[in-house]
Amino acid sequence: MKRQITFIALLIVFKMGFTQELKKKDLEIVKTFVDCIKSNNINKLKAHVAYPLRREYPLSDIDNELEFEKRYNEIFDDSLKTIIISSNIKKDWSAVGWRGIMLNNGILWLDYDGRLISVNYQSNYERDERAKLIEMDKDKIYRSLKDFEEPILIMETKQKKIRIDKLKNGKYRYASWSINSKMSKKPDIVIKDGNWIPEGSGGNHIYEFTNDNYKYECIINVLGTNDTPPAELVIYRNDKEILNEPGQIKRK
């Protein structure tokens, strides 16, 4: 995967000493999880997931127990199951402060209540399915936007519908429509050569774009308080803020 779902950007920091050995309670949490994978106890597992369980866009997230049960084998293929079952609980799992308990370099995360919070692994099935969805996506959008390398997100605010794609040069592209417009229509504005900027150590990040004396920031809040919106659009003119709108990330 070129882009992990939540925590992958922090791996270098973790390797520098932010991981800790598991406490007795944490060891029991991991052992219970591993035993469930070993026995394919989906009924027990599905009740211990922090929904929605994020999947890489444009794959849809898993929103509830029914979806988890249906898609369990799509995520937990034989390779991932082997990694989990053969893991050494004391050596391969570690606590990472308030973020939770991770396996290896963050391939999978649990919280301290034993809930599955992130799976940064993509099975062959998901990889193939994602490729199909990307091709379908290209058929639906405006003709000049079809040349992207990878779709990143679709974000909606009260006024705008925003699409961010990664291009073949590694830069990002911003396209925006009015909220009720379809993406098959010509966008109101397109800005290329955007950048991805990490914010803090919790996975929050910004996609930043400049257009003459305007700057557009799409702020993605992975972590925050209950009042923090999942996303924000901030627009500056000559470094003065002229618009700030909360947004939602659309995943279906």
Account of the protein in words:
With 252 residues, the protein is an alpha+beta fold. It folds into two domains: 8-124; 141-250. 27% of the residues lie in helices and 30% in strands. The protein contains seven helices and twelve strands. The chain has helices at residues 11-18, 24-39, 42-46, 65-75, 78-85, 89-92, 124-140, and strands at 93-95, 101-103, 108-110, 116-119, 150-156, 160-166, 172-178, 189-198, 205-211, 214-220, 231-237, 240-250. The chain has an eight-stranded antiparallel β-barrel. The protein has a four-stranded antiparallel beta sheet with strand order 1-2-3-4. The longest helix is centred in the middle third of the chain and has 17 residues, at 124-140. It starts with 10 loop residues before the first helix and ends with a strand. Mean pLDDT is 89; it is low at 1-17.
Short description:
By secondary structure, the chain is an alpha+beta fold. It has helices at residues 11-18, 24-39, 42-46, 65-75, 78-85, 89-92, 124-140; strands at residues 93-95, 101-103, 108-110, 116-119, 150-156, 160-166, 172-178, 189-198, 205-211, 214-220, 231-237, 240-250. The chain folds into 2 domains: 8-124; 141-250.
Principal-axis shape equals globular
Strand content: 25-35%
Q: How can the largest sheet be summarized?
A: 8 strands, antiparallel, barrel
Radius of gyration: 20 Å
> Which bin fits the share of residues in helices?
25-40%
Secondary-structure element string: HHHHHHEEEEHEEEEEEEE
Beginning-to-end CA distance, first to last residue: 20 Å
